[in-house]
Write a structure and sequence with these properties.
Helix content: 25-40%
Strand order of the largest sheet: 1-2
Number of strands: 2
Strand content: 5-15%
Distance between the termini: 49 Å
Mean pLDDT: 85
Low-confidence stretches: none
Radius of gyration: 18 Å
């Protein structure tokens, strides 16, 4: 597995099972705290979390503004002013 990850220039590889990490691989120049772009992976992850929150009734609609649930964004970032 490790040689395949090196050959494909993978940044990180992680396998989880039942809420536990069962395998992780970081190249020599990366550590668990190293930041790097996630591109669409982050959008997919957030979309899945939002969908789950809607199913559980935590979020009422995908059309809601994020500041309805995270009001601190409006206080800390002027781009969110007057969005409600």
């Amino acid at each position: 597995m490790d040689s395949i990850l090196v050959d494909t220039n993978s940044n990180t590889f992680l396998i989880t099972k039942s809420d536990s990490i069962i395998y992780e691989n970081f190249p020599e120049n990366l550590k668990t705290g190293t930041l790097h772009p996630s591109f669409s992976i982050a959008k997919s992850y957030v979309g899945t979390l939002v969908d789950t929150a809607i199913d559980k009734g935590i979020i009422t609609s995908a059309e809601d503004f994020v500041i309805k649930y995270l009001p601190e964004l409006e206080k800390n970032d002027s781009r969110f002013k007057n969005q409600l």
